[in-house]
Design goal:
Elements (H helix, E strand, L loop, with lengths): L1 H41 L1 H9 L4 E5 L2 H38 L54 E3 L4 E3 L5 E3 L9 H9 L3 H11 L6 E5 L4 E4 L23 H7 L3 E8 L7 H15 L6 E7 L3 E3 L9 E2 L2 H11 L10 H14 L12 E8 L7 H11 L3 E8 L7 H9 L4 E4 L5 H5 L1 H6 L1 H6 L5 E2 L3 E2 L5 H30 L31 H10 L6 H15 L16 E4 L2 E4 L17 E4 L5 E4 L6 H7 L11 H9 L8 E10 L4 E11 L6 E11 L3 E10 H7 L2 H4 L4 E5 L5 E3 L6 E2 L2 E2 L13 E2 L10 H11 L8 E11 L4 E13 L6 E7 L4 E5 L25 E3 L6 E5 L9 H14 L24 E4 L1 H13 L6 H4 L7 H14 L4 E8 L3 E6 L7 H6 L7 H13 L5 E3 L11 E14 L11 E15 H11 L15 E6 L5 E4 L14 H9 L3 E16 L5 H5 L1 H23 L10 H9 L7 H5 L15 E15 L1 H10 L5 E4 ...
Parallel strand pairs: 7-8, 7-11, 11-12, 12-13
Antiparallel strand pairs: 1-32, 2-3, 4-6, 5-6, 5-23, 8-9, 8-10, 14-20, 15-20, 16-17, 17-43, 18-19, 20-23, 21-22, 24-25, 24-31, 26-27, 28-29, 29-30, 30-31, 33-37, 34-35, 36-37, 36-40, 38-39, 39-40, 41-42, 41-47, 43-44, 44-48, 45-46, 46-47
Helix pairs in contact: 3-5, 7-8, 15-16, 17-19
């Protein structure tokens, strides 16, 4: 016995050593097989050798400061030319206006009554009944004038502008609420018609110009070149909400920055229509603000309180996100009590005074204004206004808005506006709101006009002509469309329940989660499954086959995952939901946000294969049972499955063009104006009075409008290209407010809609420091860099900073930890700072190119790309500019970038003299005199690098493999057989090579059609995830391994594939440092390409399990028998598993306890990452305007219902019902019994079915929020063992830490990024699951804020994300808010509206008259 006890530890140790040796043999064999297979399939060694020996190339140290300074200077030259263009345009406008308005009105040319209205050109009006016209069609082409077409204009597609345009003229846009035949509009359109000549001259001189325009203070918008406005109000889903006076380029140029307090009267008199008009006034004022302005909205009744409780401390920066918070809160305010104007005005002045401190960065510290919105004032309140005017010399203007048609007392409110240098407006209808509100801009611009200071204004990034309110409108449209679809399914559901055969599909079966015992006395009652009904209403699906379920589930995942968003053409993202309190949180899977909990059908969080929670109508007792049922969510009848999936889960993305604008104000250069004024005089002879008209002069300061031009973000990126920076490096730019205008992690879209905060994303929200500080407590070093970037002075040299960061990848599925170097510099004479960053470990770059000329054999360089007899199997990065026509492009190259490159290469080779790489653009003095000449631009270094890469990789084709099969000797045949033995077990599909110049080549290893998933989607070379990960892997093992990954939906599809990539580096040795030849040479390595192969997952899994089932000797264990084996990657995702459905899933969802132990052993590291650009859903219910206007009728309706209910209850109490119907009580008992699934009464009347409660959706609204993820990467032990030992020795541990429930072993798979985990069958599986997130960050709400929000019923909508003002730099332009001569200007502070009849009074009088007549008769 003692011998056994002594030998037992030795036996256990021997067993452990045996298993460790088994794991090492398996992983070494499998890893070496993958490595050899990858090298053969990609020709890795030969291509690396060709790059290493390529002529005219070098490996040099990276000088980030030099690179960023060159980029900034090149950007400055490009932007300066655009500023010069609008200065020319503004000067012409002012001179033309002066010439026009100095003429007496009698001598001015009468303006024409028609003009090119952008919404009406080529517009075919609908014909009367019997006609054949189609509304909105522009396809008609008839001889002679067509009375149905309002304006004809020849438009032609232009690649530079991206739409059909006419380069010879401009068009006019008029806001929807402005009458387009108004006299002053016609007058302004007429005198600006000559602007077309300046437009054409600017564009001929600089073809890189995009849209040029003039926005008038009257509301019309002249734009060049002419185009048909995309929204002409013919489609309700696409309303035209554009008004140039509300765009940031207009408001930024019209005024200096301003602090504004809006006083919103919500007293009891502001009800009905007045309430709606008042809200619209507040919303429109907010729309006129830019991010350089600061604002707050105070509601006042008998008390004054902030509209948004969390903005109680003062003025808030008027970003889109903050402005939207105000608008959301406006929907929730309630009218009550009396108005205390004294308290409200004092609160406004106190708030403005608080932010007048010059040391505060959270203040405009320039213009100040109070906006008073009310339906009447009882007093002039001189005791409040006069002291402030005397102390501040009238710095604070007061603008007053009188609301209501039947309000006629205007004296007080008009006097207040006039005595405080403001403006008065009487707003009687919603249609007048915008026109009345924007008048304040011209008033606040008076000091600027009088000083004649033209300040160049630069905007933040924004989306072309799209209004941010449009996103909310379109989301509401999606709500309506979803409700319509659900209602149609509900009708179909009722029909199915009437059918004896079909209704059985909805019976409760087995342990269905919503089964309930049938009540006593209801034995014949049939119970229906509410869950099955909900599934049918959600998806229209019943009893699909397993194959259809897998296909649909995989289709949904593929369609819903967001893609990286290039600034020019972002791609859509999709939602994923989790239940958090009363708000539904969106992540990234495209499940409908409208199907939220109804009644008692609660949605329970459930971990999906991707590690995030999804709120589903599932409440089964067994979670394993739920996992099997999750696919059954996608129930669908076989005949219409695919059609409806495409319609619902594959929405077409909306395309936005993101840009910044530069603009300049335009002033009326007249200082005075003359007009006839009646003057009364006395005659000396007879002492009689007489009135005569005398010509008098008055000072004026008139703001005419704004001229500007757009600069697409793509133009910045054409200069700051990834090719110049290097792989895994990128460029970014931000404004003086710290907001990015482009960044690779800037994600402005949610699905196909703009996010509410898309252009106010701060640098601290996209650069995530590697620190464990809590959310919004940003790293001091990161904030120091941000401070330096926004405060950087013009002309200062570039600065450098190195920061440890967390880089989320693959839509927050993966994370990378690294140190990055940043270099940043101010772009001269702008508000932008340009920065570039590169991993610290990447110190060298490969430089080199090939001169474009025929080789020694007279062959064209195009031969390097493709042979004449072969199909094209190469692509270039579609977002990079190699050579392109800015104007005059060939139509055949519109969607053929590769053909365009070959075209330019032929042109360059055929040039007899030196080829001009560009004939226009930055710094080119030789301009094109005509608008129809061809204009092109080429990037010389990029094109030459592309040709070099094409030459080096030209051997990457099937000829090298197939040529060996013809007339080869025994040695070569043996070599072929050896390669086939290596490759065939893995089932290669496609091999590929991608280079630093954006070139991607591929070879199909199957005889079937080309492998389209690769050639269609993996073509961005250095910007692809597999490229970036392969280069990053070089820092781990010096490029001696392949990086493998599988799609995340691999477990739901039968044609899954694996992608394996390996980086190619070029190594050069330099001399000793500092010129010391005795010093050892320095090894310099730089990435040049990545080689890869995609192959069949099924064959790879079979290969692995064949190896892991080998057993040499007694006591050894085998995978699939005694062991449950997994292959997982460096971020914890399963690559190979015994159960195919686990493939692609996060390992923690399958074995959460073992993942936790791997973290404890430091094999994996858990990384907390916060997504500050996330979007959540908010549930809301809002009645329409019609319901608001019918408040008295609703109250009357409620009163009647209450009375009937009380009478019915009284009848029951005193047994009166028995006198009418003896069975009434039994019927009532059935009604009172609520099964929520079925009642006998409903069986008698199937038209009133219990599922009616879930037939309606819950309306939602998008809300910005923060989400946290727990991501994983390899820990320190993994890297330390790999560096010190060259391999990972593996670990063997107990599953539960106590040795009671089996063991598991972990071992690195050699020459890959994978590890193998072998788990004893005794280990408990699926006991706990650990996903990667993401959950909404729940912030603590201040008690005072919560009290205010609760009283206003807005706690669930706002204040969920704390507002933390960050440091900013105030605009350096001159602040113009005061001019002492303004008091001498012609009085113009608005006027009282004419008396309008009271329709309510007229109706009352009409009723009295009719009653009187009736009584008389």
């Amino acid at each position: 016995m003692w011998t056994c006890l002594i030998l037992l530890p030795l036996l256990i140790e021997g067993r452990e050593n045996l298993l460790q040796n088994q794991l090492k043999n398996w992983t070494d064999t499998f890893g070496n097989a993958i490595f050899d297979f990858g090298n053969v399939a990609t020709k890795y060694e030969e291509i690396q050798r060709r790059f290493q020996s390529s002529p005219n190339s070098a490996v040099n140290p990276v000088n980030l400061k030099k690179v960023v300074e060159e980029m900034a200077n090149e950007t400055y030259v490009s932007l300066k030319e655009k500023v010069d263009a609008i200065r020319k345009l503004g000067h012409w406008a002012e001179q033309k206006a002066l010439e026009y308005f100095e003429k007496p009105e009698a001598f001015r040319e009468e303006p024409p009554k028609s003009y090119l209205n952008a919404k009406k050109i080529n517009f075919v009006a609908p014909l009367d009944a019997g006609g054949g016209g189609a509304k909105g069609s522009s396809e008609r082409s008839t001889e002679g004038p067509d009375p149905l077409i309002l304006e004809k204009l020849n438009l032609k597609m232009d690649e530079h502008f991206g739409v059909n345009v006419n380069l010879n003229t401009s068009t006019i846009h008029i806001p929807s609420f402005v009458y387009d035949r108004r006299e002053d509009i016609l007058d302004g359109v007429h005198w600006t018609s000559g602007m077309d000549e300046v437009f054409r001259s600017n564009y001929a001189k600089n073809p890189t110009l995009l849209w040029q325009y003039f926005g008038s203070s009257l509301g019309f918008f002249r734009q060049y070149p002419a185009m048909k406005w995309p929204k002409d109000n013919t489609d309700r889903k696409e309303p035209d909400m554009f008004d140039c006076r509300l765009r940031p380029w207009y408001t930024g140029a019209a005024n200096s920055p301003k602090n504004i307090v809006i006083l919103h009267d919500v007293s009891g008199s502001m009800m009905g229509l007045r309430r709606e008009i008042g809200r619209h006034v507040v919303q429109t004022i907010l729309d006129t603000l830019t991010e350089n302005d600061y604002v707050n909205v105070l509601n006042f009744t008998d008390k004054t309180s902030p509209l948004v409780p969390c903005y109680k401390d003062g003025l808030i920066q008027a970003t889109l996100e903050n402005v939207r918070e105000f608008k959301v809160a406006l929907d929730q305010d309630r009218t009550r009590e009396m108005a205390n104007f004294t308290a409200a005005l004092n609160a406004a002045y106190s708030m403005l005074e608080k932010h007048r401190d010059l040391n505060r960065s959270d203040s405009a510290n320039c213009n100040e204004a109070i906006m008073l919105i009310t339906d009447g004032l009882p007093d002039l309140f001189s005791e409040i206004f006069d002291p402030h005017n005397e102390e501040l010399l009238g710095r604070t203007r007061v603008f007053t808005y009188l609301i209501g048609r039947d309000v006629t007392e205007t004296a007080e409110i008009l006097s207040i506006a006039c005595s405080n240098k403001g403006y008065f407006a009487h707003v009687t209808t919603i249609g007048q709101v915008e026109e009345q509100v924007v008048k304040y801009l011209a008033v606040m611009s008076r000091p600027m006009v009088m000083a004649n200071v033209h300040t160049v204004s630069w905007t933040n990034v924004y989306a072309d002509i799209v209004d941010i309110q449009e996103s909310d409108w379109l989301w509401d449209e999606k709500n309506r469309a979803e409700q319509k679809s659900r209602s149609q399914r509900y009708k179909a559901l009722l029909k199915k329940l009437k059918n004896e055969t079909e209704k059985q599909d909805f019976y409760i079966v087995g342990d269905d989660d919503d089964s309930r015992p049938v009540p006593k006395g209801k034995k014949n009652m049939v119970s229906y499954s509410a869950k099955r009904a909900a599934e049918f209403l959600d998806y229209g699906i019943i009893n699909p086959s397993e194959e259809e379920l897998r296909e649909m589930f995989a289709h949904r995942e593929r369609q819903s995952r967001p893609q990286p968003l290039p600034p020019l053409l972002p791609l859509p993202a999709g939602p994923r939901r989790t239940k958090r309190d009363s708000t539904t949180t969106v992540t990234s899977t495209n499940f409908s946000p409208f199907h939220l909990p109804h009644h008692n059908y609660h949605h329970q969080p459930y971990p999906l294969p991707w590690g995030e929670a999804l709120s589903l109508a599932l409440a089964a007792n067994s979670r394993e049972h739920d996992h099997q049922k999750i696919l059954l969510l996608a129930r669908k009848s076989k005949h219409d499955a695919k059609k409806e999936n495409v319609a619902k889960w594959g929405p077409s993305p909306r395309k936005y063009r993101f840009m910044v604008s530069v603009s300049l104000p335009v002033f009326d250069q007249r200082n005075t104006t003359e007009h006839l004024t009646p003057v009364t005089t006395k005659a000396q002879a007879n002492n009689e009075t007489q009135t005569v008209d005398e010509m008098t002069k008055e000072k004026i300061a008139i703001f005419l409008g704004v001229v500007g031009t757009d600069i697409p973000i793509s133009e910045f990126l054409k200069i700051a290209t990834p090719f110049k920076i290097g792989v895994n490096g990128y460029a970014l730019a931000l404004t003086e407010n710290g907001h990015v205008i482009f960044h690779p992690d800037w994600r402005p879209l949610f699905t196909d809609l703009l996010k509410p905060n898309y252009n106010s994303v701060d640098l601290s929200k996209v650069e995530l420091a590697d620190t464990d500080r809590y959310e919004r407590n940003f790293d001091p070093k990161l904030m120091e860099m941000r401070r330096e970037m926004i405060n950087m002075e013009m002309g200062a040299e570039a600065a450098m900073k190195t920061i440890s960061v967390r880089v989320p990848l693959d839509e927050f599925r993966r994370v990378l930890l690294r140190r990055q170097k940043y270099a940043y510099v101010k772009i001269p004479n702008t508000v932008y700072t340009l920065a570039i960053t590169l991993p610290e470990s990447q110190q060298y770059e490969f430089t080199g190119g090939m001169e474009i000329r025929r080789d020694g054999q007279g062959r064209n360089v195009t031969h390097f790309f493709e042979a004449p007899d072969e199909p094209r199997r190469w692509r270039v990065n579609p977002d990079w500019t190699y050579c392109e026509y800015i104007r005059g492009a060939h139509p055949e190259f519109r969607d053929n970038k590769e053909g365009l490159i070959l075209h330019f290469l032929r042109e360059i080779q055929q040039a007899n003299t030196s080829w001009p790489w560009r004939n226009t653009g930055i710094g080119i003095t030789r301009r094109q005199p005509t608008l129809d000449s061809q204009v092109y631009i080429c990037d010389k270094h990029l094109v030459q690098a592309l040709v070099l890469d094409a030459n080096v990789t030209g051997v990457f084709n099937l000829k090298w493999y197939r040529s060996y099969q013809k007339d080869m000797g025994p040695l070569t045949k043996a070599f072929i057989r050896y390669n086939e033995e290596i490759m065939n077990p893995f089932g290669p599909l496609v091999g590929f090579i991608a280079t630093r110049s954006g070139l991607t080549r591929w070879v199909n290893y199957t005889d079937s059609t080309p492998f389209t998933p690769f050639s269609r989607s993996d073509i961005r070379a250095t910007e692809e995830l597999w490229y970036k990960r392969a280069v990053d892997r070089y820092d781990v093992d010096r490029g001696l391994s392949y990086v493998l990954s599988v799609p995340y939906d691999a477990g739901t599809r039968g044609d899954s594939y694996v992608t394996a990539t390996r980086a190619i580096f070029v190594h050069r040795s330099s001399g000793g440092r500092g010129g010391n030849r005795a010093a050892p040479p320095v090894q310099q390595s730089a990435p040049v390409a990545v080689a890869g192969v995609q192959f069949e997952h099924e064959k790879m899994a079979k290969r692995f399990f064949d190896i892991a089932s080998r057993c040499d000797g007694r006591g050894c264990l085998k995978c699939r028998d005694e062991l449950d084996c997994y292959v997982i990657d460096d971020n914890g995702y399963i690559v190979v598993a015994a159960r195919h459905e686990f493939t692609g899933r996060f390992f923690g969802e399958v074995h959460g306890e073992i993942l936790e132990q791997l973290v404890n052993h430091d094999i994996y590291k858990r990384v907390h990452v916060v997504d500050y650009q996330a979007i959540c859903f908010h549930l809301f219910s809002k009645s329409g305007f019609g319901m608001i206007l019918q408040n008295p009728f609703r109250y009357f309706q409620w009163m009647v219902k209450w009375f009937i209910g009380r009478m019915a209850w009284l009848m029951l109490q005193v047994n009166l019902h028995s006198y009418f119907s003896p069975d009434f009580s039994a019927v009532l008992a059935d009604i009172i019994y609520v099964d929520e699934e079925y009642s006998e009464d409903q069986e008698k009347n199937p038209n009133w079915h219990p599922f009616f409660g879930i037939a309606s959706i819950n309306k939602t609204r998008l809300r910005p929020c923060h989400k946290e993820y727990l991501l994983y990467t390899y820990g320190k032990k993994y890297y330390s063992d790999l560096y010190t030992k060259g391999y990972h020795p593996g670990i063997l541990a107990d599953c539960d830490g106590f040795g009671h429930n089996g063991f598991y072993g972990v071992h690195l798979i050699n020459r890959t990024n994978l590890i193998m985990i072998a788990i004893d069958a005794k280990c408990p599986a699926l006991r706990s699951r650990k996903g990667v997130g993401g959950q909404e960050v729940q912030y603590t709400i201040d008690e005072e804020i919560e009290k205010l929000a609760t009283s206003n019923d807005v706690i669930n909508q706002i204040c969920r994300t704390p507002y933390i003002p960050l440091e900013r730099k105030r605009p350096s332009s001159r602040c113009l808010f005061f001019n002492e001569d303004e008091k001498d200007l012609r009085p113009d502070c608005g006027a009282a509206a004419g008396l309008n009849p009271s329709f309510a009074l007229l109706n009352l009088l009409s009723i009295i008259i009719l009653v009187k007549k009736f009584l008389l008769h």
